[in-house]
Write a structure and sequence with these properties.
The protein has one domain (about 1-299). About 75% of the residues lie in helices and about 0% in strands. With about 300 residues, the chain is mainly α.
Length: about 300
């Protein structure tokens, strides 16, 4: 029985790691698409592709009226609000800076669990929180000196704000799965609800997205962003945290800033100065310390 549980957890960790890798590609695809698409139009295409990918495998919904309200609330926070804020930030900053800021998400999750789920954050946790905060400050400081860091102060801050919004999305999705709903159902119907709200917002604020004259690489970036960095990654993540302790799964979120930074530097020519490198190292070290070395009692 113990070996079977270990095997299930190993597969769950693998799913979380793959989700982190797929999420790490999202900022790169966004930068490619921004060459011809506005933020709202890119996001609408991204989530329409994601919904298309979920249609063949979606399950019939079995949510109560109260659970539908929770799902709609989570979807509103997680898709139109979080992604509009995050990708407006990406529009202003670099892929590498945005990806490194996402490295603070495991610590934000830990604080959220402490405040809302009444988990205990020990001394190691508070030290990790302090280290992550210093790391964010270093990246933001380097953003205000474009010669050093190449980022944008406001862009980096918008990415951090989006992560706070994402916290509520993650906790609400986890609550719905704890009520007995499958990761596939929560992921799929959450995507459909969030995309419907995003479509209304984009159409009213920016009009219909362009169709003609869009280069093939932009279409491919939008499709990959929806199918890989949205549908597949969210499904893998929800499936993974349904089988492993969320406190330990959080460490795999650090794959996202690593992949994003590598893609930004190698493919887009981003420049990371000493402040950004030091800040990113602090953020990732804090998250690894917080999640990978947590005591068994906390599980």
């Amino acid at each position: 029985m113990s070996q079977q549980r270990t095997g299930v957890q190993a597969v769950g960790y693998a799913a979380c790691a793959l989700a982190g890798s797929f999420w790490g590609m999202g900022f790169f695809f966004g930068k490619v698409a921004f060459s011809q698409l506005a933020v709202g139009h890119f996001l609408l295409y991204r989530f329409l592709f994601a919904c298309a990918g979920m249609l063949p495998i979606i399950q019939a919904p079995h949510f109560s009226p109260r659970e539908w309200k929770l799902l709609v609330a989570a979807s509103c926070l997680g898709i139109p609000l979080q992604f509009m804020i995050q990708f407006y930030g990406l529009k202003l900053t670099t892929v590498s800076h945005a990806a490194l800021m996402v490295g603070s998400m495991p610590v934000i999750l830990a604080v959220g669990a402490t405040v809302f789920a009444h988990e205990h954050l020990d001394r190691k946790g508070w030290v990790s929180l302090l280290g992550s905060t210093v790391g964010v400050a270093l990246i933001v400081f380097s953003s205000s000196h474009s010669v050093i860091g190449g980022g944008s102060l406001w862009g980096d801050l918008l990415v951090v704000i989006s992560l706070v919004v994402a916290l509520a999305w993650v906790l609400l999705n986890q609550h719905l799965m704890a009520l007995g709903h499958s990761p596939l159902s929560v992921t799929g119907w959450g995507l459909f609800a969030g995309t419907a709200m995003l479509a209304i917002w984009v159409l009213l604020s920016s009009g219909p997205p362009p169709i003609h004259g869009i280069r093939l690489q932009v279409w491919l970036a939008a499709a990959a962003s929806g199918l890989v960095s949205t549908a597949a990654s969210t499904l893998l993540w929800n499936w993974g945290i349904h089988r492993v302790p969320a406190s330990r799964a959080g460490v795999f979120l650090n794959i996202e800033p690593a992949v994003g930074s590598i893609l930004g530097v190698t493919l887009l020519g981003d420049r990371l100065g000493p402040g950004a490198w030091a800040g990113g190292a602090l953020i990732i070290a804090a998250a690894v310390t917080l999640t990978a070395t947590r005591s068994p009692q906390s599980e």
